[in-house]
Amino acid sequence: MSTGSMLSRAMRFLRIFFLKPQERAALKAGRDSGLFDPVYYSGAYPQVHALFRPFLLRHYIVYGERMGYRPNPDFSPSAYLRYNPDVADQGVSPFLHYARSGHKEDRLTKELPKVEELPDVLAPKLRFDPDRPRADVAIVMHIYYPDLWPEFKAKIESLDIAHDLYVTLTYRGDETEELATQIRAEFPDATVVPLENRGRDILPFLTLVNAGALTGYKAICKIHTKKSPHREDGEKWRRHLIDGVLPDEGLEGLLETFIGDEKASFWVADGQHFDDTKWWGSNLEITRSLLRRIEVEISGKRLSFPAGSIYWMKPVIVDLLRAMKLNTEQFDPELAQVDGTLAHALERTMGFLSDVAELEIRQTTQVAQIRDGQLESGSDAQDLTRPAFVSTFYLPQFHPFPENDAWWGKGFTEWRGTVAATPMFAGHAQPVLPTDLGYYDLRATEVMGDQAALARAHGIDAFCVYHYWFDGKRLMEAPLDKLLERPEIDFPFYLCWANESWRRNWDGMSGTILVEQTYKNGFEQALVDDSLKYMRDPRYMRPDGTRPRFVIYRPEDMPDPAGSVARMRAAWQAAGIGEVELGAVCFHIGGDNPVQDDLFDFWIEMPPHGIVTMDDYVFGGPEGNKLGRDVRGGFKGLVYDYNKVIENSVSKSYVNDLPANTICGVMPSWDNSARRGFDAHMAYGANPARFGVWLDRMMLHRVGTSYRRELFVNAWNEWAEKAVMEPNSIYGDMALRTLSAKLGKEVR
Question: Structure pTM?
Fold first, then answer.
């Protein structure tokens, strides 16, 4: 560098310290108003020399404003002068005027986009067949700038991977309709959808997510026609972001690595994993509110997310986005905002969705290093022990019967309480309602066949069906008895004798007794006799290949547990059944007659029983309300942290207190608001991604020593306790797909 050039650069730098009167006024106004955003300025204009970095406001005042730079995302000097001619007439610095008084006067500060109303005839009513043929991956493209279509078309045509293509377009009248027709002609298999100009590229993507278009892919690539007019290097930046995730060479191998990387959630271009709270901007509270839709809490002390809104993502991210139930009405009208909207908050939310599933954001170089064996992915898959047999508790109460008619009203089933459940605080996900299987009636035995097919496809081997028997009186017997009449319906099951008294409070321990369990002399023989027709059915499960299984819910309630068990075993032998594999549930409150661990062949761990500690409560515990917000008036229930329960389940102190012959257990969620209303007990923070984390923990620490390497899920269909694996209105079939993925079963 010549001496003259060095001198010129030095003079240019020193100039910012010798301000003219109007510049000094702008410096003071900028500092006093807080309207200059140095984080934004340094990110938007990376070409600003490093010497100026400690003095960015001075740089803006002396050089930036006349170059058209913005002092913050929401202020354009040129637009301010155009929309406010009185300021232009004064010949004053637009930023000085804005910082002194303009920001208090509701003046327009940036360009307003042209918004065309989408004709009803083009308004999408999207429907996608979940069983349609699909490629392994999808590419989703949003076109805001039509002039960039040739560039994006060339990129798609150059790809050497099989994919499904989805294209959304911001509607601009005839121009958009013509481009949509062109794209359909050039890519006949693509889904092309014009949409209203709202929610940037995020809402169009969510429109496809909410319609189910992106469910079932192994990975989804999201790209858009990014120009970033607030950046001088906008075109170069866009190409860096897109080429980073859709490179001209080596894409197939990189994508295979990303899909196979069990710890990866996103794949972004190099430099696009932002990991610093300085990027919060004005988006923290909106992000907090969004995440509460899936029962996730954040402090704001950490921020890590894939920036630029161009990336590959895993299916778990799509599922969680769909669960948020965001639609057009919730997105801000387009006013050229550069920060502080729902769309901007969602960009930051993506990182927390990755955190929820305990996954990591990868940049292109990292994916390549993992592919080449230069970097470990951090996966512990090789250390996981998958269960050899999976059971789930099954409630047969979904049909009317005389006793429920008398106690709760004509036609009562569990559905009545389920649909009436209401949230008790912001972020409390209620009601949770059935979808795929509907509000079924178990008197229609075909339903049980549908349930079994769904369970089996996702890795569940057997239903442990509650057997309500009270000294010869049966309740809810119709579903199983009808099943015996339909041998063609494949429903693998075994019985769990629900031997607690039936009470009005639903908990078996308090409230008015509706049907009492009395344990009359000889009850053991009568119970065994009642079980025989089920055990003789070929669908009755023998998990070890030989012995039919039978479970007792609360053995400590029996007057003489050891004697009763011996008499039951003998009665089954005498009836020709042979040896029975007899188990019991680890209940959280001991009965009057303690039982030795070795009395039963196995025990079943049944969360949340016995696993919640006083330290886990976020409401109703010794420290009162730790939710950080008010609850609904009159609520006096208990709320505990689902994530603390996950950690408890693998803690040595907890595990050491369980019988050695215990089947380890998990629960997808728990919340009995549908039954107990203002007195409900619930696990806050439960969603299928966290359920997946729990499954990982169990396979890493517990399944290997579990009885017969089995796993128990509480429950299949306890809808009034929100302990359900069946597809529901918030998460769809995500819990089932999470289970099957963790078990290594591929379901498309």
Answer: 0.86
